[in-house]
Amino acid sequence: MTGTMYGYIRVSTKDQNDDRQRIAMKKYGVAKENIFADKQSGKDFERPGYKALLKKIRECDTLIIKSIDRLGRDFNEIIEQWRHITLEKKCGIVVLDMKLLNTGLDRSLLDRLVAEIMLIALSYVAETEREMMRQRVVEGIAAAKARGVAVGRKPIQLPHNFEFIWDLWAQGELSGREAARQLGVDNHTFAKWAKEIG
Predict the structure, then answer these.
(1) Catalytic position from the list 12, 41, 108, 175
(2) Where are the active-site residues found (predicted)?
(3) CATH H-level, domain 5-125: superfamily
């Protein structure tokens, strides 16, 4: 492998811990000073850490990521960024959790083609699953409202950002405790909402 190895890590909120990704980078041999990080949602690529990374990497360098969803959540944008890095910048990409996606510069043209096909398929599946999850949230909320079950005190209204936070929790990006904190409710209330919707 030629050039310099750079790592990119991302968690969805400032309160989340990125130690697991940092440990994986260190174990792979990425120098601490070559790791770029963001603590925000992967809904787009307007992130300071990612932008700084793109300015830094040069031809023959290799980008290391823990998993493909650390790059982002949007299917089309992930594909666009992947091609920008591998084709325009002529850098390799190593996905630690799925070696089949690796496009390291030492791999054959066929290997790199297979990796790109796999990336397209996996990104599509991931986005389809997220859409289905959002649909389940919407349907679950509607069903809960239709049941109209009100025992004891008046139920707390679902916060405006509930759907977004529930989505992150359902994907394992937020703990139940953190999801409840961000929604401004106790753990019991969040667990109850999650059970009704799930």
Answers:
(1) 12
(2) 12 (o-(5'-phospho-dna)-serine intermediate)
(3) Resolvase, N-terminal catalytic domain (3.40.50.1390)
- Residue 67 annotated as catalytic: no
This prediction has a pTM of: 0.60
Question: For the chain, which residues make up each domain, given as ranges?
Answer: 5-125, 149-197
pLDDT tens, 6-55? Answer: 999 998 777 778 888 999 999 999 999 999 999 887 677 788 999 999 99
pLDDT tens digit sequence for 130-171: 677 777 777 777 777 777 654 345 556 778 788 888 778 877
CATH classification for the domain delimited by 149-197, as one of 1.10.1760, 1.10.10, 1.10.260, 3.10.50: 1.10.10
CA angle, corner 109, sides to 57 and 75, nearest 5? 60
